[in-house]
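Support request from a user on the community tier.

User writes: "When I paste my C-alpha cells into the form, the page sometimes reloads and wipes my input. The last time it worked, I copied everything first. Here is what I submitted, just in case something in the input itself triggers the reload:"
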C-alpha cells in the first residue's frame, strides 16, 4: 500500500510541476507538446513500475 501511495504522489508531483510551465508552453506548440509528452511518459513509467510491483507481489503469494 505504501509503494502504491508513493507512485500516486509521484504522478501528482509531475502534474504540479507542469502547472507553472503551462502558460509559457501553451504559447509555443512544440514546447506544449514536449511538456505534455514529458508528463505522459513520466506518469506512464510510474504506472508500469506499479504494475510490475503488483505482479511481483502476486508471484510471491502464489
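"...and here is what came back when it finally went through:"
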Amino acid at each position: 500500500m505504501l509503494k502504491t501511495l508513493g507512485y500516486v504522489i509521484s504522478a501528482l508531483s509531475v502534474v504540479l510541476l507542469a502547472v507553472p510551465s503551462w502558460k509559457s508552453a501553451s504559447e509555443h506548440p512544440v514546447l506544449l507538446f514536449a511538456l505534455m509528452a514529458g508528463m505522459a511518459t513520466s506518469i506512464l513509467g510510474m504506472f508500469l513500475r506499479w504494475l510490475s510491483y503488483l505482479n511481483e507481489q502476486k508471484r510471491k503469494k502464489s
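Agent notes: The reload is a front-end session timeout and is unrelated to the input. The mean pLDDT is 94. Residues 2-61 form one domain. Escalated to web team.
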